[in-house]
Amino acid sequence: MKEQERKMKEQEQRLQEQEQRLQEQEQQLQQQQQQIEQLKQLNERIIQQQKQLQQQPQQERARSLSVEERITWATFTPPHPPTEEQILEYELHQELEEEEEKGNEKEKGGKKPKTKKKKTKKKKT
Q: How far apart are CA 122 and CA 125, in angstroms?
């Protein structure tokens, strides 16, 4: 009889330990589910912010940044290379200036005129 009682108590104790472990596991599972939900919400907010940023023009984006961010943005944003059209326009302008200088040299007996070269502005694309 005592042996049966002892076995019953041991079995009951094991059962209680199992229930306690099960409760701890359920609690951990709930915490993990909450973390997953929080991460999903954070991810969704990030996606929304990225969509908004993609819709803003780059210059507007630069204006909305703090001074430190603007410096970083300007430092790490590579300049756009000139387009084929801009390169051709620049070369044509250079050729015209050279021809004009040669014409002026002939008129003045070989002396170079003291005129300032006009600076050309590159068009932004």
A: 9
Q: Write down the mean pLDDT value for the chain.
A: 79
Give pLDDT < 50 ranges for the chain: none
Please give the Cα distance from 30 to 35 (Å, whole number). Answer: 9
Per-residue pLDDT at 54:
76
Torsion sign across C-alpha atoms 101, 103, 105, 110: positive
pLDDT value of residue 8: 93
Q: How many whole angstroms separate alpha carbon 57 and alpha carbon 38?
A: 31
Per-residue pLDDT at 53 = 78
d(CA 98, CA 95): 5
Dihedral angle sign, alpha carbons of residues 7, 9, 10, 12: positive
Distance CA 15, CA 74 (A): 66
Stated pTM of the model: 0.37
C-alpha torsion 20→24→29→34, nearest 10: 130
**Cβ neighbour number for residue 103 with a 10 Å cutoff:** 11
